[in-house]
Amino acid sequence: MCELLGMSANVPTDICFSFKGLKERGGRTGPHRDGWGVAFYEGKGVCTFKDALPSYESEIARLVSDYPIKSCAVVAHIRQANRGRVSLQNTHPFTRELWGRYWTYAHNGQLHDYKDLPVARFQPVGTTDSERAFCYLMSELDKRYPNKPRSRKAAFRFLQKKAKTLQQLGVFNMLLTDGEYLLTYCTTKLHWITRRAPFGIARLSDVDVDIDFSRETTPKDVVTVIATEPLTLNEQWHKMQPGESQLFRYGEPI
Amino acid sequence: MCELLGMSANVPTDICFSFKGLKERGGRTGPHRDGWGVAFYEGKGVCTFKDALPSYESEIARLVSDYPIKSCAVVAHIRQANRGRVSLQNTHPFTRELWGRYWTYAHNGQLHDYKDLPVARFQPVGTTDSERAFCYLMSELDKRYPNKPRSRKAAFRFLQKKAKTLQQLGVFNMLLTDGEYLLTYCTTKLHWITRRAPFGIARLSDVDVDIDFSRETTPKDVVTVIATEPLTLNEQWHKMQPGESQLFRYGEPI
């Protein structure tokens, strides 16, 4: 299995604090040694850092956890390989372009019979069940909307339905974003928290670090963080139920 | 204008030495302050670092120039904006997937009437002439070969012809790779050098650094480096002519 981390925010926000917790699970406090990756959106642009090394000993992960890259949408993943060998091509998150936007996705879980999932315009580069499922979702989206739909929200609602069909093939916890919307789907484990004023102090569960968000934010900031397991000890995270899906836009659940 | 840097090699090789020279041109020895990016292939996988900051003061660029990421195909770019504002979405290199492979591209130059270039399956995300030209090339390739061709070399020969038509719209110096082949096209400025045994010492022109390649390589290594301007002082670089194109595969000109 793997661990997911996502962020949706209404102002460009860095994810250093949460990523610091996550990367420890990549080989130190957790068994996810088989690579990691994180995608940051700035507007419609996206920058993705990936490494097939364990995150807790990756130089690139150290940079990402120390260097405040500000973003309104982030998708991160640390991997414990099951389907597909350890390599860069099999490292999440995966990105494809559709309708002049980059779509980025990461998956936690394991699917059976995934090789039969029909893909058309979008083809997997690597050999994971995860990337095949992503190419399936994007191919279905392209088939349903051969031209850019007026409402991307409707496109995400369509993806929610398609994610439900993937659940029948196994464990499918997922994050998918176009930089503005962020879709979550849970079949076993996914938690989220929306932080807004008044902001308090949060304490990481994986390393001895705390942060006073009131010093880092303005009263208008709304920031949602999504993670496989809660990353902090002293806050109330929303635990998603099997089959539950939640769409976020600029930090707000919608 | 911008500066390009590419590498094609028959063994995974780091580009730290060449990148060290290039990044100085991003705001210190050169005027290219408007972002930079570099894509490294590991097999079919690709990892791209990008930053809208000048490379000479970018933390990410410092990491890339110090941290030996080994790759057989690299495309890098530092930008001086002309078409399209300074932003991540307009930062090269650009990547798209076709036939289950990632294609990565960077451009130096300026095109007129580029908004009329027909694009179909591949749409630009940003607003640069460069990305539009890339989407045009990829859309033409998809139209010419609706299914994966037996020979990717033939696909690159087709791209060479299409690049020639882009030359009619202005300055079009280009690098394009699928991780195995690397295609260059020159209309004004592009140089390359193939290093092989016996390896010697090279001295960078932009910073006071030299390297003894014989200590870093094995006798079988073949490494081609492509750059807008030669990066070293004491070696003979091949200066490409206007309209000249060269395809490389695993370091060898073919």
From TrEMBL, chains A, B:
<feature type="domain" description="Glutamine amidotransferase type-2">
    <location>
        <begin position="2"/>
        <end position="251"/>
    </location>
</feature>
<dbReference type="InterPro" id="IPR029055">
    <property type="entry name" value="Ntn_hydrolases_N"/>
</dbReference>
<protein>
    <submittedName>
        <fullName>Glutamine amidotransferase</fullName>
    </submittedName>
</protein>
<keyword id="KW-0315">Glutamine amidotransferase</keyword>
<dbReference type="InterPro" id="IPR017932">
    <property type="entry name" value="GATase_2_dom"/>
</dbReference>
<keyword id="KW-0808">Transferase</keyword>
<dbReference type="InterPro" id="IPR026869">
    <property type="entry name" value="EgtC-like"/>
</dbReference>
<dbReference type="GO" id="GO:0016740">
    <property type="term" value="F:transferase activity"/>
</dbReference>
<dbReference type="Pfam" id="PF13230">
    <property type="entry name" value="GATase_4"/>
</dbReference>
